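>> received
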Amino acid sequence: MRRKLVAGNWKMNGSLVANAALMAEIKAGLTAPACDIALCVPAPYFAQCQAELAGSAIAWGAQDVSAHAAGAYTGEIAVSMLQDFACQYAIVGHSERRAYHAESDALVAQKAVRALQAGVTPIVCVGETLAEREAGQTDAVVGRQLAAVLDVLDAADLARIVVAYEPVWAIGTGKTATPQMAQDVHLALRAKLAEKNPAAAAEVKILHGGSMKPDNAAELLAMPDIDGGLIGGAALKALDFLAIVAAAR
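>> returned
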């Protein structure tokens, strides 16, 4: 039985004061969580999160990581820097990085490998746009995105990644990914993982990143291949985030 993971993605939000209040409220509201929990925060707040969350049930991580180990890459964040702050996770290939920074499947794969080499768990994001969905290309698109990562991983490393499915077409469009629609894609992703390593595919957590909220979390998380959520807006509201964690039992 895969233990679920609820990972908050703060995106480009936060301040020292707001972060402290949010984390304090989340910690105070947790009572024997039945799932893994993580907060992926902007890099300037790694030290704050390490100080606030150390010893708690909440892990912390980054929203991106460089494919390079070090060097003349202004603005990039090396995985060794994540290690300095005991980050356990790094999101790679988020739809916003792919769209706004033109990140390719190959670059995302390099970032995943770099994280794994340092003992940081990559949360590998895949997902199709509205045009791709309407053209019936969902399985082909997410399959291609995932295959780029699988092609550069050893079969033994497969169980060390987390996958997150983001139905990009359902974010801010007014359209909705139903639990069954999400489950169908998660199942296809698990089948793709099984082509590489059947045993490990059964262990890999596949998160849903399509606007999971308190009012739809339980129904989504009841699906057999939805192993948690990559939470955006709801991760910035303690009560909403705690409600989703509670639904992941």
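>> Residues 213 and 234 are 6 Å apart (CA to CA).
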